[in-house]
Amino acid sequence: MDQLVFAAEVFMNGLMTGVMYALVALGFVLIFKASGVFNYAQGVLALFAALTLVGIQQGQVPFAHLINSIFGTHLEYFGWTVPVVLAILLAGAVMVLLAFLVEKLVLQHLVGQEPIILFMATIGLAYFLEGLGDVMWGADIKNLDVGLPQGISESIESVSANWFGYGFFIDRLDIWAAIIAALLVTALVAFAQYTKQGRAMRAVADDHQAALSVGISLRFIWVMVWSIAGFVALVAGIMWGTKSGVQFSLSLIALKALPVLMLGGFTSIPGAIAGGLIIGVGEKMFEFFIGPMIGGATENWFAYVLALLFLVFRPQGLFGERIIERV
Amino acid sequence: MLYREAGDFKTSYRDDGQTFPIRLDRVAYYAVLIVAFLIVPFVINDYWANAVVVPFLIYAIAALGLNILTGYAGQVSLGTGGFMAVGAYAVYKLMTTFPEINIIIHILLAGGITAIVGVLFGLPSLRIKGFYLAVATLAAQFFLVWLFNKVPWFYNYSASGQITAPTRTVFGLAVTGPSTSAAAKYLICLLFVFILAWVARNLTRGTLGRKWMAIRDMDIAAEIIGVNPLSAKLSAFAVSSFFVGVSGALLFSVYLGAAEVGEAFGINKSFLVLFMIIIGGLGSIFGSFAGAAFMVLMPVVLKNLLVGQFGWATDLAAHFELMIVGALIVFFLIAEPHGLARLWALTKEKLRLWPFPH
């Protein structure tokens, strides 16, 4: 009985983690659908967004370390703090600017190249942004606090204590993350279905050349999609940053999102969510039941092996478009 | 006029089928070999061996291996780091279990073991294609690193979890362990590079290489004209993993001496080798060498420039290095998506006409 209740708790926590994975995977899917680019930099985008947010919020001087070491000054802070909402808006603006620059400097020149080349370019971009984030805001671990509630949720604990005689430990931040992710997905779907730009985006995803021929600007759509992905990255960065501090390891969540994508299919938004939940629950349950027998820390690879085995039976993932090849 | 095929007549099939059919290429190749084998060992010092030459040779083997898989057979792999770890741990277990057998045999066996592991992880490639496969190979990367971390048998139950290479000799000359001279390290790596590059060159222009390229260009079409995808894909995985395994074995036993799996063979290694073949040129033996040289030299040059010349703090320089590496990769992909090998081919084209360009 105890084992079962513990497992239920692990299951709940797995669901919550899965939501966080899905949040990152969402950014991948958006860009892949709209431009066919497999954007490895999505994780680093989240890191960069979170760093920028903290920097703006605390009034850090950008490039302080660099300026100091060239001019011998001792700049560090402007000495003001920016309110949370304004800081988030400014960080969002930075992400839009970044999307514009990426389109202008990188993607525009790589139109029509093979997917592997585009993928490599985003790895290069990931390295660049990682370095830029460190040079701009410093490499130390930062605390991010945007006023999201944290800590154990007492109401769930007391309710579950009444039902099972054991209080579940669920972080309030995770619950908020789930709610925000749900809102974000709803907003994105609504945007894609009911607005003019959303329709254009779906048209581009369907067929680049056909979209061009009916007068849709590819460049605008790409900037827009990268901006949206940047915004999703900002949200993911806020969630993960609040949870475990803003630091380099934040960018590694991209590696967690990849098996989610494989499982759900690269082109499907519902797939990203379902995949996230399956992986989140799966890896927590595996670690709980099997982990102790084989030495633990299985979370690093379990998701990949699960996705790999799954793909052998369904090569396009859960909801991915069927791969049709012609000679 | 400097570089030409004209006037270089072949009178037998033997002549026509030799590894370098153009005379100037052949002469250049022999000249490089003479310099590499007879001159460099006498002038090499510790700094050059450790910072540039030995890592270049070792990564060149890894790049050759990945290029066979990705450049020739078209199967993108992000598991190179994991396969290098297999080579390293295999050679460690062999060295400590059978100390009386020559290290060269150990290294070749380590390559063979890696080939078996590679085929195992290559099996899904028969069903999964493209990016799905690239991500699937990450499973190999993470699983193998975890395995070598968690199973104490692999590191002989040492307290630190590290593996350390004992001293082994070839013809009385120490090639592994702390007392190895720079020239010995260099020579053993050069020997493997020399043989494996020759093997790679001849494999890729023979039947097997043509099968790989047919699979790369379009696997369904290749299957229809009679290429067996099972044997072609798995042989690509096997040969590639053999190369990568040998490179991992050399990296651990000759170059590093001691290694911790997560640090020495993490995902960054996979990306590093992938960068090498992209920058060097996919589907080119020369490109593998050029890419390896570029990726090994660049950090050394940048570090000397930023820290040595400008006197910046090392952490700032490290961050800048990341930025520059990233920017250079993007720049290269934009300027020449086919890599340094393509630039080299263009140069040869120009030399062929020089000094009369019309």
UniProtKB/TrEMBL annotation, chain A:
Subcellular location: Cell membrane
Keyword Transmembrane helix: yes
GO biological process, any: amino acid transport
GO CC entries: plasma membrane
Keywords attached to this entry: Amino-acid transport, Cell membrane, Membrane, Transmembrane, Transmembrane helix, Transport
This protein's record includes keyword Cell membrane: yes
InterPro entries reported in the protein's UniProt record: ABC_transp_permease, BCAA_transport_permease
Recorded GO MF terms: transmembrane transporter activity
Assigned protein family: Belongs to the binding-protein-dependent transport system permease family. LivHM subfamily.
UniProt-recorded name of the protein: Branched-chain amino acid ABC transporter permease
Taxonomic source organism: Paracoccus onubensis
Automatic annotation (TrEMBL), chain B:
Membrane topology: Multi-pass membrane protein
UniProt protein name: Branched-chain amino acid ABC transporter permease
Residue spans crossing the bilayer: 27-44, 50-69, 101-123, 130-148, 183-200, 236-259, 271-296, 316-335
Entry's localization field: Cell membrane
One GO MF term: branched-chain amino acid transmembrane transporter activity
Organism this protein belongs to: Paracoccus onubensis
InterPro entries the UniProt entry points to: ABC_transp_permease (IPR001851), LivM-like (IPR043428)
Domain of life: Bacteria
Keywords in alphabetical order: Cell membrane, Membrane, Transmembrane, Transmembrane helix
Classification via Pfam families: BPD_transp_2 (PF02653)
One cellular-component annotation, GO: plasma membrane
